[in-house]
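Q: Predict the bound structure with pyridoxal-5'-phosphate.
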Amino acid sequence: MTLTVRDFLPTDDSITRAALTPVAREMVGSMILRIASDVKRLQDSGRAVANFTVGDFAPAQFRIPDALTEEIARAVAEGQTNYPPADGLPELRSAISELYARELGLDYGPDAVCVGSGARPPIFASWQLFVEPGDRTVSFVPMWNVGYYAQLFQSRHDFVLTTAESNFFPTVQQARAAVKGARLVIVNTPLNPTGTVISPDVLRALAQALVEENAGRARPCMLLFDQVYWMLTAEGVKHANPVALVPECAPYVIQVDAISKCFAATGLRLGWGVLPPALQRSMKSLIGHIGAWAPKPEQLATARFLRQPEAMADYLDSMRSAVNQRLNALYDGVMAMKAEGLPVDAVAPQGAIYLSFRVNLVGRKGFADNEAIRLFLLDKAGVGAVPFQAFDHQQDDGWFRLSVGAVGMDDIEGALARLQAALRDALPNT
Ligand SMILES: Cc1ncc(COP(=O)(O)O)c(C=O)c1O
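A: Predicted complex:
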């Protein structure tokens, strides 16, 4: 006989939720995923909608490297299916260490590498290892997901507002001020959601300020440096790294990375932190307790793939060219509409898979806030976009993230044509 457990569960959720801690009660899910489900609903109803919402890849557009597919199958066939070490297989940690030496000019050695199931476990672990409730933590707005972590760890978080004029990165002054009295500062470049990269001058200033700040402190401020998109940059754009710029900051930096974005492998769940070995051991314990290690076949396959620099370079060339073609088409299309006098703008793409896109309609009749613009874009233009509000930016100033991971060139052409028609329609006197 099967027990119908549902009959024993209260229909009033508040009774069950009383078990949650106050912090857990306040926790909310991803706003981006909620917006993406709106797009999916409209697509399912048969409407032409270009999905620029999720920071993910549609496998029909972007595949993982063939070598990874083959090596994963081979590792499973070889029976490599038991527990890996909590901080990753030695061959993968060595391959990552070699990758950083080869491509970034940073020789940390394998003991500095802690593998996890994507970039999130090392990010989560950094908060858990270095931040206590009430500690000052700092990030620059807009930035992906930081608000959720600040809530979870109950830090006294300072969201430092940036502007399009500084490419949505801090000024040198803001960067220097950020580390003062802070326990954790977060920098992400290339930046989700803006598709821009930090200038070496600003990063150098921040790294130098970090070294100066920590010289007088018993417990140092740490820099969580999220470079998950570093291999995806526009032509002529160079990725900057704080340790390469100011080697003395190395004891205070946690580099976070993954195969998720650069190899279109978000579903394989493999990432890593690179940090001083004395801290790596604590990260290893934490990741082990959570069970957030990466699957063993993926670890072996990634180790083998990262040790084939030519196959990697070939893949990245085609990946970058496909991403940049899409971003440039979107940027050019938006700028052509701007030249026509329509109230749109964009920031020239520099990296990652995103375009900063502005629809400057707030204040016009029927457009009270970014949410009204989002619904207009979706309903009238079939353009699914994520407002910067999803990245802790509170201003209703019309800025949106457009992600190109799930769209083809035909989707982009269709979306631009619909957008132009919808804007002309909404603003007949323009
Ligand atoms: C800047 C940034 N860091 C980290 C992540 C998380 O990566 P993963 O899927 O490897 O956990 C994302 C995902 O969107 C991201 O945009």
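A: The CA atoms of residues 66 and 315 lie 9 Å apart.
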